[in-house]
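Sample 1 of the test manifest.
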Amino acid sequence: MSIVKIVEEPIDVAGLTESLMHDEYGGIDTFIGTIRQFTDEVETEKIEYTTYKNMAEKEMHKLANIVLDKGMDVVMVHRVGELALGEVAVFIGVAAPHRAEAFENCQMLIDTLKKTVPIWKKEYDKDKIRWGGLGE
Amino acid sequence: MKVKLFSVLAEKIGPSIDLNLPDQFKSQDVLNQIKELHPDYANVLDQSLVAVNEEYTNDQDIKLESVDEIAIIPPVSGG
């Protein structure tokens, strides 16, 4: 049942949440990452995401499998391309028997995705372009 | 051997770069060759990893004959 992929089209938050609803799970935790306007005083106008798609999906499956192997359900969807303010860049969801496991594994998935999955952001800010991960 | 580039490296250098790699090498050798050709991006390359056949490498020896695909992975920033 798990859904793990990189997409170019808008992420269907309601549909993905619905996909996690099963009778055996009583706790569903979701993380939705969106394009933020302000980071301190820096104003962002849009973000362009690129990826090394085959490797990125492979790395996402490795992470999802850690959670699937514990008997939970998982959704990991990341969007690439040009995203406007407020649009959803990433959706992570974990369905588990109880809430503690759902919270814990959902956080692990998004934290690890940000460290290991080859996806890059090019941030178009009011003052200049910033490449994610590289600092100034 | 064509080495795939991504993110800022792809935008500044191109989607790939042709390198002459020996029969056996380490990931650092790949990064060093690109640094010599494009010293302006040494800072990015110093923070980058090398992926062989869509898997991260560390400092192990890499045999050229086992390489189907090789890519430079700058610091990732998804999410």
